[in-house]
Amino acid sequence: MKHFRSIMLLFFLYCIGITSPAQERDSLSMGAKADSMVQDTLQVGRERNHPVKEAANHQEPEINIRMIENRLRIEELPQEAILEIYNIMGVKVYNRRIPPGTGEYPVHLTRGYYILKIGKTTKKIAIR
Fold first, then answer.
1. Long-range contact pairs involving 59-67 (C-beta distance under 8 Å, separation at least 24)
2. Domains along the chain?
3. Is 84 exposed, middle or buried (0-12, 13-18, 19+ CB in 10 A)?
4. Cα gap 113→33, rounded to integer Å
5. CB neighbour burial string for 45-80, b if at least 16 within 10 angstroms, e if fewer
6. What is the rounded distance in angstroms from the CA atom of residue 35 to the CA atom of residue 55?
7. How far apart are CA 57 and CA 60, in angstroms?
8. CA nearest 42: which of 4, 8, 9?
């Protein structure tokens, strides 16, 4: 397993155009640059500037969505968005632009289950 990781690291470095530390050290006249290259290569697994972890920690503000009789109440919408409602078969039955903030919107839907989408937020609602 240890050899596999070393091979994968060398392959990765080769793909991005960096030669192995030994080849770099042989071809450079200045030893400091080669040592710097070796140190940078050895830090691959560390959490220095890891954009994937930073993106995973990012949380979208939670939008509160509730049905009150035949009105849809949307609270804490951070920015203007498009509200789309689909029936359970995937047919769009309602479409509207929603301003940021909190608001109530009349929706006249028959009984059943619907998929509600506001921006990147999706929620299942039931009309009884």
1. 60/120, 60/121, 63/118, 63/121, 65/116, 65/118, 65/121, 65/123, 65/125, 67/125, 67/126, 67/127
2. 2-57 (no CATH), 64-127 (2.60.40.3080)
3. middle
4. 64
5. eeeeeeeeeeeeeeeeeebebebeeeebebeebeee
6. 32
7. 10
8. 9
- Give bridge partners of residue 86 from the DSSP assignment: 92, 115
How much is the pLDDT for 119? 87
d(CA 42, CA 48) in angstroms, rounded, equals: 12
Quote the pLDDT of residue 116.
95
pTM: 0.54
* CA-derived radius of gyration, the chain: 27
Question: pLDDT means per 10 residues in the chain (128 residues)?
Answer: 65 60 52 53 54 60 86 93 95 96 93 93 90
Instruction: Give φ, ψ of 69 to 5 degrees.
Output: 55, -120
| pLDDT at residue 22, as a whole number | 56
Assigned token pair, 120: 């990147």
Both tokens assigned to 125: 């609602």
